Amino acid sequence: MKWNLGSDGSLWIIAPNSVSEIGCIHTCQGLEVDYVGVIVGDDLIVRNGKVLVDPSKRANTDASIKGYKSLFKKDEKTAKEKIRSIIKNTYRTLLTRGMKGCYVYFTDKETEDYFKSRLK
């Protein structure tokens, strides 16, 4: 898929053709649409009912977690808390962009099953 409609700048998500585009947290926060689709990647998974995060599974271009490896070496506890917060907040923000609805795709089956069970 194309990434963030280039011709529409920061308003790509509300452009008519955005239904066939993919964007990120940085270009859609603060904007709402009728429906949104979110891909929950392997950076957020659930194992045995526990939500886990893995910053190494994020795009290496993601500036929000830049320097996390150095922070781990200096202060592992703070680094883990910060990374967990950033990753969970990313998905919370993405999942709340749709005013009428949200479609979610999970790359991990156990995570998908966990979230489906929470909706029942």
Explain what the structure shows.
A hairpin with a 2-residue loop joins β4 and β5. The protein is globular, with a radius of gyration of 15 Å. It has two domains: 31 residues, no CATH class; 80 residues, no CATH class. The mean pLDDT is 86. It starts with a strand and ends with a helix. α2 runs antiparallel to α3. Strands 1-2 form a two-stranded parallel sheet. The longest helix is centred in the last third of the chain and has 20 residues. It contains four helices and six strands; from the N terminus they run ββαβββααβα. The chain is α/β, with parallel strands linked by helices and 120 residues long.
Write the layout of secondary structure elements.
Blueprint: E1 2-3, E2 21-22, H1 25-28, E3 33-40, E4 44-47, E5 50-53, H2 68-74, H3 76-95, E6 98-106, H4 109-119
Parallel strand pairs: 1-2, 3-6
Antiparallel strand pairs: 4-5
Helix pairs in contact: 2-3
Features:
6 strands; 120 residues; globular; single chain; 4 helices; alpha/beta; two-stranded parallel ribbon; 35% helix
Structural class: alpha/beta
Summed up, the domain count is 2
Radius of gyration: 15 Å
- Count the strands? 6
Mean pLDDT: 86
Distance between the termini: 32 Å
Spatial arrangement of strands, main beta sheet = 1-2
Characterize the largest beta sheet: strand count, sense, and whether it forms a barrel. 2 strands, parallel
Question: What is the number of helical segments per DSSP (H or I, 4+ residues)?
Answer: 4
Q: Helix coverage percent of residues?
A: 25-40%
| Outline | globular
Which regions have little confidence, pLDDT < 50, spanning 5+ residues? none
How are helices and strands ordered from N to C? Answer: EEHEEEHHEH
The share of residues in extended strands comes to 15-25%
